[in-house]
């Protein structure tokens, strides 16, 4: 899809934060068609989909029956088709087909869209690529908006473009037929903007800085509340959905994830203990790469009320050395996109 991956995570991270980084998102695509597809979406997704408008994009959890996280998905709703992109699981179509059978609906068609590819491009210059695909002003494609587009090239193939991202920068998701050349075109345009491919480690750093959900790393072994994923669930729903009964019965969390910062070169070890004074209050859950930045960043699972910003705690490096950890509010960076106007 792109030229050779840059040698360092720092270069890839810089693409995301200063120009544009390109990557292949998710693990599986599926489409839903038919008049009863709304019933399937409602039963499968943890966020209520009853009043979702056409030409919109959003994210939701899919839960297991015990209310733990099965996966997160991106949901793009068009007039006659719903697209779902699973973030980490490759058996999305199978789950949807089981949902159809459990619901007893007939007028719905589930397709594992293996004939399509998803391409994501994010960064303060990413809108320049998206603008080339639109026949209207780029600023009119608002955050969480989606539209069909004609792809570059002689074939005139149709794709779907959504404005939705994961790093706090401008971000777009393009779904295109496999073999259409869309992935190669996006890569070439990114290179013209001094951008390039972004790998998993660079994305981990950029997403951790803005606390964008990273499944399964963020949710592994945790409840929805412990993992800080409440916004990907519609609470208080009275309709039936996967994991809903267990979610309603779940107790309030006694611990939660919080961003913690340390000096560069003093990364705490994942799984190591976090202390307040001489009291153990939690563990380091996820550690992001340094990526050429001047501070370490991690997510720590801490007992309440310690899961709040503004505290100085103690962690341990891989060799057991004590280091100071500062709990912080998110985001911990100011994305460049916040200061660059679309279309400028």
Automatic annotation (TrEMBL):
Keyword tags: Transferase
Pfam families: GCV_T
Gene3D superfamilies: Probable tRNA modification gtpase trme, domain 1
Listed GO CC annotations: cytosol
Molecular function, one GO term: transferase activity
Superkingdom as given in the UniProt entry: Bacteria
Domain GCVT N-terminal positions: 30-235
This protein's name: Aminomethyl transferase family protein
Taxonomic source organism: Streptomyces mobaraensis (Streptoverticillium mobaraense)
Lineage, opening ranks: Bacteria, Bacillati, Actinomycetota, Actinomycetes, Kitasatosporales
């Amino acid at each position: 899809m792109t030229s050779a991956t840059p040698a360092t995570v720092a270069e890839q991270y810089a693409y995301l934060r200063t120009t544009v980084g390109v990557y292949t998102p998710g693990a599986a695509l599926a489409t839903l068609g038919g008049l009863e597809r709304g019933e399937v979406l409602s039963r499968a997704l943890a966020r209520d989909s009853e009043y979702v408008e056409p030409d919109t994009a959003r994210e939701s959890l899919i839960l297991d029956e015990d209310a733990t996280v099965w996966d997160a998905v991106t949901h793009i709703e068009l007039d006659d088709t719903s697209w779902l992109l699973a973030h980490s699981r490759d058996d999305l179509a199978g789950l949807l087909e089981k949902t159809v059978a459990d619901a007893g609906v007939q007028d719905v068609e589930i397709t594992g869209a293996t004939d399509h590819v998803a391409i994501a491009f994010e960064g303060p210059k990413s809108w320049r690529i998206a603008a080339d695909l639109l026949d209207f002003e780029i600023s009119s494609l608002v955050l969480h908006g989606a539209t069909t587009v004609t792809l570059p090239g002689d074939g005139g193939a149709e794709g779907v473009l959504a404005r939705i991202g994961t790093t706090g920068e401008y971000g777009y998701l393009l779904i295109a037929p496999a073999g259409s050349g869309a992935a190669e075109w996006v890569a070439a345009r990114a290179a013209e903007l001094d951008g390039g491919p972004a790998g998993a480690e660079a994305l981990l750093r950029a997403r951790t800085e803005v606390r964008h959900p990273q499944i399964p790393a963020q949710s592994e072994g945790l409840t929805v509340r412990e993992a800080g994923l409440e916004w990907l669930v519609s609470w208080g729903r009275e309709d039936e959905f996967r994991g809903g009964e267990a979610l309603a019965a779940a107790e309030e969390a006694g611990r939660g994830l919080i961003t913690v910062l340390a000096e560069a070169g003093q990364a705490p070890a994942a799984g190591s203990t976090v202390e307040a004074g001489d009291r153990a209050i939690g563990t380091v859950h996820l550690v992001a790469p340094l990526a050429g930045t001047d501070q370490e960043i991690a997510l720590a699972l801490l007992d309440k009320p310690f899961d709040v910003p503004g505290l100085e705690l103690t962690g341990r490096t891989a060799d057991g050395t004590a280091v100071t950890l500062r709990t912080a509010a998110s985001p911990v960076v100011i994305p460049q996109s916040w200061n660059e106007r679309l279309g400028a």
